[in-house]
Amino acid sequence: MSDALNEFQPSTVYGLTDSEQADFWKLMNVWRDRLSGNKLRKRYYDQKNAVKGLGISVPDKLSSLSAVLGWPSKAVDELADRSVLEGFTFGGERDEWFDRMVDENDFLTVYDQALSAELIGSCAFCTVSAGEEGEPEVILSAYGPDDAAAIWDYRRKRIKAGLALVDVDIDDAGQAHPRWVNLYTSTVTASCVKGSDGRWRASRTENTVGRPLMEPLCYLPDTRRPFGKSRITRAVMSITDCAVREVQRSEIAAEFAALPQKYALGVDAKTFGADDEKRYRAWMGAILALTQNKNGETPTVGQFPQIAMQPHIDYMRSLALQFSGETGIPVSSLGVVQDNPSSAEAMYAAERQLIAKAERLNRGNGRALRNVARIAFCVRDGVKYEDLDGAAWDAKARFRDEVRSSKAANADYAIKLASSVPAYAKTAYFWRDSGYTEDEARDIMSQVSRAEAAQAIMQAAAQPQSQGVTGVAADDGGGGGGVPVGGARPGGGGEGDGGSGDTGVAQG
Length: 508
Hints:
The chain has helices spanning 2-6, 18-45, 71-80, 96-104, 107-121, 234-258, 269-272, 276-284, 310-327, 344-381, 407-420, 428-433, 438-476, 503-507; strands at 13-14, 85-90, 123-130, 138-143, 148-153, 158-170, 176-184, 188-194, 200-206, 214-218, 262-265, 300-303, 395-399. With 508 residues, it is an alpha+beta fold. A hairpin with a 5-residue loop joins β8 and β9 (200-206). The chain has a 6-stranded mixed β-sheet.
């Protein structure tokens, strides 16, 4: 789709004002400037980067040998696995309407897709729009940097304008051609659509929110790069190139190691000749028969030492350690296995850098998703962003724990905390901290509530029957013959009751 967008160069989009047209072309230039870098990193993530041979150790005949390494995708996926969006809360409570919007838009999956695009290309974009007939009331979408661009407003600390490719047409040759591109500004959302005559026309929708209906998800932004940076850095690509070359060299060396070279001294030239195939069959044969040469000398046969693979293994391990230091991924995830099994503390120490990056990622994405939720309520209610109040303003994105502790460790933590604060055990946080997901915690709370309600009903139904039995015993005793608790004799009053004849009634 990004290749198709690269061909999108309309001279004029009818329906845009001069300032909007200027923003439109500025956005297109931003997109084109970043396109080559985004494509390069996408190739590394897709493991389609070519081997950059040095032309020294690998013969030209073997230089086309394919070598693939998935370390760049590991750099992205290992961190993405620790940013799992579970849902949203508003003032600490879930909102039925927004939960339905999340479900109808499949927004949890949309976030996963946007997250991968963010980590590959440094940023992704979530957009909000009002749904049409037959659609959800609010449409929540996401675009990667290949199909979207934005201009940063340094004063307001948000985007000034954004552009996103929405739809394409597929021709008979299978090529994609842009058909629908959206322009987002603080005052309007313009849908730029290509007509049957080839002209581009914009249909304008007033933006009542007061800010673009587009929110960026940025990985590690800073003042110089407000849209963040990619996980596939130049260092990652350089180390990957070295590792891919080593994979190729190791594969070739393994072939020679499996078939070590032999030699034969004192053999006539006509014995093997210049035929490589004949030499190979002779070398591979189970029996090698050699006669004396013309001088009557007996040939001497030997074998060169086998090629050692350990240097290749050591170099690959060195590269894995460099990659681990650059990305924070434990070396065990890169195929380097330790001789002794790691303890829980050692595993946590190895993942500490990755956990810290995940916490920072979730903090930044949480703010962006909070704004997406607020914008969704603004679009629904037709209010400005700064006028939104109540629980909708207190939106919060909930992520699964980045540490990913075992359920046993989570349960131990939750139980110890509940022993100090008993009321905590009756909240959803108790079950979430015990390792259950948002939906699982909600189901457990619902089942516990139903069980407690059923138990309360059973106790209420049994209470009048027990009181009736006690009352009859008191009447039969003439005002003092009820059987008191503790085994006191009838009619005499229990110990310490002052001889009162109302003991049975009081205890009932």
